[in-house]
Amino acid sequence: MGIEIKIEHLTKSFGRQMIWDDVSLTLPAGEISVMLGPSGTGKSVLLKTLIGLLKPDRGSVIIEGTDIAGCSRAELFEIRQLFGVLFQDGAMFGSMSLYDNVAFPLREHTNKGETEIRGIVMEKMDLVGLKGAEMKLPGEISGGMRKRAGLARALVLDPEILLIDEPDSGLDPVRTSFINQLFVDLNAQIDATFLIVTHDIHTARTIPDNIGLLYHRHLAMFGPREMLLSSQEPVVRQFLNAQRVGPIGMSEEKDADELAAEEGHELPPLPPIPLQLEPSNGIPRRSQRAPGEWCRANGVVPPAGSFTDSISPSAIGV
Ligand SMILES: Nc1ncnc2c1ncn2[C@@H]1O[C@H](COP(=O)(O)OP(=O)(O)OP(=O)(O)O)[C@@H](O)[C@H]1O
Question: What ipTM was assigned to the predicted interfaces of this complex?
Answer without folding.
Answer: 0.97
